[in-house]
Amino acid sequence: MRRTDRSGAADAFYDVLERRRDVRAEFTGEPVDDDVLRRILSAAHAAPSVGMSQPWDFVLVRDDDTKTRFQRHVRERRDRFASTLDPERATTFSRIKIEGILESTLSVVVTYDANRGAPAVLGRHTIADTGLYSVCLAIQNLWLAATAEGLGVGWVSFFEEPYLRELLAIPQRVRPIAWLCLGPVARLQEMPDLERHGWRSRLPLESVVHHERYSCPTDE
Fold it and tell me: Whole-model pTM?
């Protein structure tokens, strides 16, 4: 659809989508207004969920000691991953900052409780992971709302679930899904970091759209 065919509201929405970035190095550490944070969390909590189970919780982390301990854990896992790469890939990876835990204002840890709404979670009977998908929708809502508010978000994925569960006293039945760094940023990069540093490039849309059935290149 051409931009001239869109309404002002649609333009604003697509602008947020295009500006959204996984932020690492750009956090300023400035405060986040309480009302703004509540709006962002409300947007996350308004996400659709299977059987309206709302299986997410949000743990707000501001304590410097907790953040430092988690950052140390993440750095160790990053180094372990780097050791598995060939020299050329390792050089590329060494230029990529993977987290902004200490630089961001606060962190939001998003969890998944499969027992929420159980045992009869409408819609989860045949696909157990729909509950996990619901949490991912909440994360996306949070991310887009933060972007609309002029804030940045960075998803930290270099961690082991048991470590984070123990660090934040998360019950055994609950899965920690995402550690999200959140806060004001100096700017948002025009290009995603992994693309900017040459790790991966975005695939063209045409390569991932299929008609009527899934078609592999060998089928053509």
Answer: 0.90
